[in-house]
Write a structure and sequence with these properties.
There is one protein chain. This protein is an alpha+beta fold. It contains seven helices and 14 strands. The strands form three sheets. Strands 4, 5, 6, 7, 8, 11, 12, 13 and 14 form a nine-stranded mixed beta sheet that branches. Strands 1-3-2 form a three-stranded antiparallel beta sheet. Helix 6 (about 260-270) packs antiparallel against helix 7. The longest helix is centred in the last third of the chain and has 15 residues, at about 300-315. It is globular and about 70 Å long.
């Protein structure tokens, strides 16, 4: 049983939404049904007053939540080998492998990172989403921070919201970039293809910074920093710029450059996931206030891809 207290302001961009829907968007760690029940029992107040779930918000309203959090996650713990890069009493940072789904969902009720976390640290069942405060796509590898206490959870959520957490990715895109830059294009879910996101003026703010690490004959190795954290943000932004990530099965297609070496052709043909790795993570420790920086090498298949492109540069 844990006391949970938060205060936020409903952003202007959610004006016109139902209250329960708007709150589900600004408190993603809780389900909409849970939020609705808290609105009904008065645990959530708007401008200090009780509202109904169906009431329409205008944006700018003060929201306060004061609850005793007692419900535990029902997902079953499962033994799983976790690559733990850092751990103390408050947080853990893991290196998520390619192919591991983060949250249970339709078609993935077990074998997810959450199941493994609950086995590794059973106390995480007392936290929202078992301490998961951000996510990576199934086929994106790399660093994720996990909260092990409610204090850490609240701190990390606030840091992510205020953009104090630095997340840097290694990526390989199709085409040769002339230099780095910033992509500032709003993103929202595709109206027809519900698994896809797309650039739209009426979407949520999404800002991606990138710099060139190395140019190849027909590809570019880039370092990418996220200022915001939208679903598929890097993949969507580079697809919008017609520089899809190598191997991306959702936003791109197989592209074999003319005249490339047989070795590179084989690697590209067998690379079936987006060439993306969360390789560097910087955050403020929830208790000590010290800066924590962790950096890893990309996954083996990613390094093999870079090696093949490097060899192709020197091939006659």
């Amino acid at each position: 049983m844990t006391n949970y207290s938060r205060q936020k302001i409903i952003p202007e961009e959610l004006s016109g939404n139902r209250l329960d829907l708007a709150l589900a968007k600004i408190f993603p760690e809780f389900s909409r049904s849970r939020i609705k029940s808290w609105i009904l029992d008065g645990s959530i107040l708007i401008k200090g007053e009780k509202f109904r779930p169906r009431d329409i918000v205008n944006g700018g309203e003060d929201v306060s939540i004061q609850v005793i959090y007692t419900e535990k996650i029902t997902n079953e713990p499962e033994p799983m080998i976790l690559d733990i890069e850092y751990e103390d009493e408050e947080i853990a940072v893991i290196n998520k492998p390619v192919g591991l789904v983060v949250h249970p969902g339709a078609g993935n009720f077990n074998g997810t990172l959450m199941n493994g976390l609950l086995h590794q640290w059973p106390k995480l069942s007392e936290l929202p989403r078992a301490g998961i405060v951000h996510r990576l796509d199934k086929d994106t590898s790399g660093l994720m921070v996990i909260a092990k206490t409610l204090i850490a959870h609240n701190s990390l959520v606030r840091q992510l919201e205020s953009r104090e957490v630095t997340r840097q990715y290694d990526a390989v895109c199709n085409g040769v970039l002339t230099g780095g830059g910033t992509i500032n294009e709003n993103i929202k879910r595709h109206p027809v293809h519900r698994k896809k996101m797309m650039v739209r003026d009426d979407g949520k703010e999404a800002i991606t910074h990138y710099r060139v690490e190395k140019r190849f004959k027909a590809h570019t190795h880039i370092k990418v920093n996220l200022e915001t954290g939208r679903t598929h943000q890097i993949r969507v932004h580079f697809a919008f710029r017609r520089r899809t990530l190598v191997g991306d099965p959702l936003y791109g297609r197989l592209m074999i450059p003319s005249g490339c070496s047989l070795g590179l052709k084989e690697v590209l043909s067998s690379f079936k996931r987006q060439a993306l790795c969360a390789s560097r993570l910087e955050l403020i420790h929830p208790l000590s206030g010290q800066n924590i920086t962790l950096e890893i090498e990309p996954a083996t298949d990613f390094k093999n891809l870079l090696n093949a492109m490097t060899l192709d540069l020197t091939a006659e």
